[in-house]
Amino acid sequence: IIEFPLQLKSGTVVTNERRAGPDRRELAFIAGQDLFRGVPWHLIEHILDTMPPRVLEPGEILIHQGEENHILYLVLQGELNIHPDSPESDPSFVIHAGQCAGDMSIIDGKPASAFVIAGRDSKVIAMPDDTFWHDIVGKPNVARNMMQMLVDRMRLQNQEALQALRRELQLQHLQKELSIAHDIQLNMLPRLPLLEGNSSLTAHAIMTAAQDIGGDFYDLLTLDDGRIYVAVGDVSGKGIPAALF
Questions:
Q1: Which has the closest alpha carbon to 103: 56, 142, 59, 139?
Q2: Measured distance CA(118)–CA(80) in Å, rounded
Q3: pTM of the model
């Protein structure tokens, strides 16, 4: 005999028999949604049952940057990529199954700040913002779960921003070292004007590396017997490897 209310291991409280309601196999995705963690199913399943899933193909744009968005998308399967600049830009982060998209724009009412694009075959539920605010957000734990999801996303974006800053600093350091190497390489070449003081011969030379530094070099020496020694070299390849060799 099953007595109600019944508390499940997950913490969900079942207040009454629900098998006579909608097919719960179709609503099993509720358990996998971060937004509904700890929310009694009977409070929301009759609302979600009216929202059929939407299937997305890879590359399909769900939200356009700069356009108003009034939909909260619950990701059931697949993943959504967030592109801050253009659909062709690298995604800044990925929204996986169990998470949601469009939350920022329905909270502040401002146009979407990025493109939301299906990264692969995906399935979502589109919840209008008025349904969320009138029928969902007041349910137990929903507001707290929403805040937790936003905090987690902000922390992830902060970590990615710090990593991008570190990469930028490393690139600046490398560029500075390449600039120093460029100056050192030029200083290793004979100083101009060449063969200064030699009235019988005039020489001109120039070296322009394809990159910051390269594998080309030349030298001119006046030997003791008055002869001129000329050296011209071209190491196979470009950049740092050629310059080192």
A1: 142
A2: 5
A3: 0.61
> Any residues with CB less than 8 A from the CB of 60 and at least 6 apart, and which?
117, 118
What are the tokens at 208? 């322009």
Q: Residue 136 carries which DSSP code?
A: I
Rg, the chain, Cα only: 33
For residue 96, what are the β-bridge partners? 79
Give the burial class of 215: count Cβ atoms within 10 A of its Cβ; 0-12 exposed, 13-18 middle, 19 or more buried.
Answer: buried
Helix (H) or strand (E) holding 100: strand 100-101
Distance CA 136, CA 130 (A): 9
How far is 154 from 106, CA to CA, in rounded Å?
17
| In 59-141, alpha helices (H) | 103-108, 129-131
* Three-state secondary-structure class, residue 73: strand
**Rounded-to-integer distance, Cα 126 and Cα 70, Å:** 10
Q: Using CA atoms, how far apart are residues 221 and 231, in angstroms rounded to an integer?
A: 9
Distance CA 177, CA 62 (A): 44
Specify the residue for token string 């409280």. 13
Residues 96, 149 contacting (CB under 8 angstroms): no
Inter-CA distances, 94 with 11, 81, 128, 160, 162, Å: 29, 5, 22, 12, 17
Q: Tell me: the pLDDT tens digits for 180-233?
A: 888 888 888 888 788 877 777 888 888 887 777 888 888 888 888 888 888 998
Torsions phi, psi for 175 (to 5 deg): -65, -35
